[in-house]
Amino acid sequence: MNKTLSLLAWGAVAVLGALAVGVVAVHRGEPINALWLVMAATCCYALGYRFYSRFIATKILALDALRATPAERLENGRDFLVTNKWVVFGHHFAAIAGPGPLVGPVLAAQFGYLPGTLWILAGAVFAGCVQDFVILLFSVRRDGKSLTEMAREETGRIGGFVAYLAVIAILIILLALVALIVVNALKSSPWGTFTIAMTIPIALWMGVYLRRIRPGKVMEASVFGFILVIIAIWGGQWVSQTPTLASIFTLTASSLAVLIMVYGFAASALPVWLLLAPRDYLSTFVKLGTISLLAVGIVLLRPTLHMPALTRFIDGTGPVFAGKVFPFAFITIACGAVSGFHSLISSGTTPKLIARETETRMVGYGAMIAESAVALMAVIAACVLQPGVYFAMNSPAGLVGQAPEAAAATISGWGFPVTAPDMLALAHAVGEQKLFDRTGGAPAFAVGMANIFSRSLGGQAFMAIWYHFAIMFEALFILTVLDAGTRVARFMIQDALGHVYKPLGRTSWYPSILATSGLIVASWGYFLWQGVRDPLGGFNSLWPLFGIANQLLATVALCVATTIIIKMHRTKYALVTLAPLSWLVTVTFTASWHKIFDPSLRIGFLAQAKVLAAGPATGETARLIFNNRLDAAVTAALVLMVSLVVVESVRAWAAALRSGEGACMKESPFVMTRLAEGR
Amino acid sequence: MKRALETVLMRTRDAARILVTALREIFDEAAYARFLSRTRMSSSTQAYAAFRQEFEEAKTRRPKCC
Predict the structure, then answer these.
(1) Distance from CA of B31 to the nearest CA of A (A)
(2) Whole-complex ipTM
(3) Each residue's pLDDT tens digit, A308-317
């Protein structure tokens, strides 16, 4: 009876899912309700988790609840610790959910809601969740080893080396990009700049509170910090309306870029407890609360999507970034579908906390589903905007015109009507001076989020408060990634330099700290400056570069996973990782080819350099030519390195298949769990 | 009816407990409590400073995702 009921229930979920995906896919013309997307996603995630992840868990990985995990065998009360599965889930989700799933889908909304939605659903169920799940389990079976260590042991030395270089490259490009998002969200915005500036003394106060007043009471300090941030948001309105103060906090993109570089350097060089840790806690607190609130808001209010399913920009002429829907939609949305960066978390802290192998399914596959749901919320937040408003905000002035009237005319000419007075009214409603040329995705997401929130809480009168709350949420979130990322990159560089000259590897030696912090900040600062000065807004070149680097890291992770599956003698199931691997290789290599060699000026780095070289020679053009050639060289180097990993992996697969039973893995030996014996 | 209500209350209590535990873990309060118990120290400025120093070596080296 139970089996029949279960069959009927899952059959109903499948039918409902098919219906919802069908409606989302074929609906044209009239606006569609966001609930269709929510329903399609819920059914796809439920089916994927219930059937596909179970298939992987039983047929390929053969999860063994009796096998002791490193958390049990190597428990030390610090890194290795047997932890409740829901707690590990929360920890893992907090680590993988960064600003990527919020920004990427907003940018990809220029193609319409359909490509992003389908990629988020299919990418997560068949690629992202699979990658996170299998890498987590393989790390658990290898004493919690990192991706680079597993790559070195299972595919060869090149794999480990490339994974290391790819991580550094991704970190540098990622940090530049997230800094550029903050710059574009805060430029000419005294309210936003004041609120974010206030989070620094608030974090410093929290640091002192945690260290001196109430040691270790983090949740308490975070609640106080959150209340102070809310006061800062209210205060920002007053600042923006006070001419003297408003002029202090009205900054240009260049000034903000310099300030963010100074901040990144300080955060990397200062003691963690003073600024980095409190800001991280505050950011996590705001992140978990806001994402939950947004999910509830979308489900309860069921907003209508005004963006069409597909726009004319699938042909590659989009103003947000140039390039056709294939391959560019698939590298623009990384986190939320499949992100190589996740493999670092799945082989980092998380495997050292897992109590039983069987829990890797819920943590690895399940947390990625949650992240994918966040990405879908971002699609909805972007697509509830009128398309004209969306394009007015996300199109760089260099493309649509500096004057509001000219920009509105260009965008209306594309078939997305918008007027300069409408945009001004919207800007005033959200407490800004202008909303044209606010590229980067964050302001558009903030307007969408304010739109959803203000419909249930506070009405139009609260639109400005919600907008700045959303900007604060995104910027806080992003600055946490920026300061933590700069520090992590500093440690990685110090580890490497320690092999050359030992004192450089000492993380407490200040000359080394200052030199390596300076090196990392200068590296991402260079790309940030390039983005700030780019007449096309910077995202056109930097976001694809980041997407390519991130997806190439996923390629490395899936190469490692496929190698291990073949060595486990599960070759007949290798398609589970081989299919997403092939897709990612196709997508990233095609995107890289376009970004380097495409003859279109807005796509190909070399084409742009060539045209600039043919024009009048000025200092500005010389810099732009160098930047384009540098971007082309970075892309080519990443592709070359990953090609070596793919070739080495294929050789490892062939060797494993030839040696049959003799293929050996570097798995830790089986040890019976004490947790089961005690039961 | 009463039994069903008790079950609901029990489930809610369990869910709340797990939520608080997860939050304590995410915000490192549980890690600090474990540190205090392992080192047999009581909570103080010095103990928290020692915890942060140990913690920095391990957790702050981990990348956060994009």
Answers:
(1) 7
(2) 0.82
(3) 999 999 999 9
